[in-house]
Design a protein that fits this description.
five-stranded mixed beta sheet, flat, Heat Shock Protein 90, 48% helix, 13 helices, alpha+beta, disordered N terminus
């Protein structure tokens, strides 16, 4: 009888708890409103910076495509004749205000350029004569057909090969566009970027050439948002040296003061990538600057925001907090209804748990049956391969000694290797994930037995770093290992003086791995790829391709075989 009053008190207890929680939430919401403003400001700043970065990337990608098209054109014609270059380059300078100069340089320091100045197009070129770099000009407005009008400039000329963009492009070692910030000594204005790439040679031309755009950042970034209609923020774009790439809005002294204070705080915090909040003239402000890297060039994109307007945006949130109290009361009613159905829910959960356990048992049984089936498959494959090996051996015995018999014996050996791989697989305790240390160790022993007595004086060591793999990958790796170790036994140690073979599997990151087989033998002969061992290398290369990898080898005090391959890492 005493339980009924206790049950009747439950709704009241729940209401009291909910009301207390609601009051706590309301008070917390009021106290946390400044943090809410800061969070909204940060989200807004991230959106502005994200939009700026997207626009910057769009502009850069467009110019990169234009540069690659010009590089392909120059590589195709393989000429420095301005007759062919002038129509394209002048059109590009007219259509793209951000590009003020196009340059084409070679490996000797020769340079041909077309610049757009206040008076029009202007050609210039640097010729290398007796080791000296001589600058020649063509009068403004003239191009092809006026070779006699070229005039030699007085004074020395800097070698284009000393330019930052020249060396930076060659360091890339790929035919991809490279962005380089112009040094103060390389330009007469600030905010100039170089975009350069290697010109592909399509006619077998010796040497190399580089093509470069000189880009004015202010024109390049003209589409970036500098502010909104309410002037609540100012967009910022700077180089790594804090050179402004965008004209900063400074309509009022207070904006310049806020920007100066924001940049001062940003520097004092070690150029932080997090937003910094401060007050200037009783105005709450936020400066948020993030570093971004675009093709090797570091830029700072940011925003200076006046968060006063955010207070108006959050004025309705306090009313929503009080409305939440009503919703919590409604939730009380729902909880009471849920409490009545609690027992039924518990019974349903128990039934579902029982069904889940039954499914787990069936799944475990199915996995066990699959494991048995996999072992049987590998066992039968091994038996079939042994039959094929026996047939090849019988056929080889009927052939007189010579190249044909040797090919039969080598084919038999490869069949034996595949049989050993499958035999080792079905002998493992777990076929879902194959431990490479156990698997490789067994295979190495089998290969050594196949090459006795020569292998008795050759030791081997296997290091797999506790890696494992799936059965399909294990088969490919096993055959590769056996082929490479067999090659070491057959060719690396012609004298019975002993030797050593190292086998190592390394995880290089994500899904990339490397299998290395190294011996300290006599090294790979120069004509090894033309002899009978060529087929073994072809087998290894084919299996590496199947694993989305590559196969390489080199000799230096022995022979090293490297197989790069990809596989999904294990759950561990």
């Amino acid at each position: 009888m005493s339980q009924h009053p206790q049950r009747a008190m439950w709704p009241y207890v729940m209401v009291a708890i909910v009301v207390s929680i609601a009051l706590a939430v309301v008070v917390w919401g009021i106290l946390a409103m400044p943090q809410r403003h800061a969070a909204l400001a940060q989200v807004g700043g991230e959106r502005v910076i994200g939009n700026m970065r997207s626009l910057v990337l769009s502009e850069l990608r467009f110019l990169e495509r234009e540069l690659q098209r010009e590089a392909a054109f120059v590589g195709g014609i393989d000429s420095l004749d301005i007759l062919e270059l002038e129509p394209r380059w002048s059109s590009l300078l007219d259509s793209e205000p951000a590009i003020r100069r196009i340059r084409l340089a070679d490996e000797q320091g020769g340079d041909l350029s077309l610049a757009l100045g206040e008076n029009g197009m202007h050609w210039s070129r640097v010729l290398v004569q007796n080791g000296d770099h001589i600058l020649w000009h063509l009068p403004t407005g003239l191009s092809s057909g006026h070779d006699s009008l070229w005039t030699r400039a007085t004074g020395g000329m800097n070698d284009v090969r000393t330019s930052s963009w020249y060396s930076r492009t060659l360091e890339e070692q790929r035919e991809v566009p490279v962005w380089v910030l112009a040094a103060p000594s390389e330009t007469d204005s600030t905010g100039v970027l170089f975009l350069a790439t290697v010109v592909p040679s399509m006619s077998g031309r010796r040497g190399f050439r580089l093509i470069c755009f000189e880009v004015v950042s202010a024109d390049l970034l003209r589409s970036l948002p500098r502010s909104d209609v309410q002037n609540s923020y100012t967009g910022l774009a700077m180089t790594a040296d804090e050179v402004q790439l965008l004209p900063v809005r400074s309509d009022e002294d207070r904006d310049a003061e806020a920007l100066s204070e924001g940049l001062r705080r940003w520097r004092s915090l070690g150029y932080t990538n997090t937003p910094e909040f401060f007050r200037v003239n009783d105005r709450p402000m936020m400066i948020y600057i993030r570093r971004t890297t675009l093709n090797g060039t570091h830029l700072y994109l940011g925003v200076l925001m006046d968060i006063t307007l955010l207070k108006h945006w959050t004025a309705g949130e306090q009313g929503l907090l009080w409305s939440g109290l009503v919703l919590l009361i409604v939730l009380i009613v729902l909880l009471v209804l849920i409490f009545r159905n609690d027992r039924a829910s518990i019974r349903q959960i128990k039934k579902q748990s029982q069904r889940q356990r039954a499914q787990e048992r069936r799944l475990a049984k199915a996995l066990g049956e699959r494991d048995v089936l996999d072992r049987e498959v590998h066992h039968r494959v091994k038996n079939n391969l042994q039959v094929v090996s026996s047939l090849l051996n019988i056929q080889a015995q009927r052939i007189e000694d010579g190249p044909t018999k040797q090919e039969f014996l080598r084919s038999k050996q490869r069949i034996d290797i595949m049989a050993v791989v499958h035999q080792r697989l079905y002998g493992l305790s777990d076929l879902r994930r194959v431990e490479l240390s156990t698997f490789f160790g067994g295979l190495a022993k089998n290969v050594a037995d196949m090459h006795g007595p020569r292998s008795r004086t050759v030791s081997h060591e296997i290091q797999t770093h506790d890696l494992d793999c799936d059965p399909d990958t294990a088969i490919e790796l096993g055959i590769i290992l056996c082929e490479l170790m067999a090659n070491c036994y057959e060719h690396a140690f012609p004298l019975v003086t002993g030797g050593h073979i190292d086998v190592e599997v390394q995880h290089l990151g994500t899904d990339l791995y490397r299998l290395t087989v190294k011996d300290n033998g006599t090294g790979l002969a120069k004509d090894a790829l033309e002899r009978s061992g060529r087929l073994g290398f072809d087998v290894v290369s084919s299996l590496a391709d199947k694993l989305d990898g590559t196969f390489k080898h080199h000799s230096n005090g022995g022979t090293t075989f490297d197989v790069l391959f990809r596989m999904q890492p294990g759950p561990g």
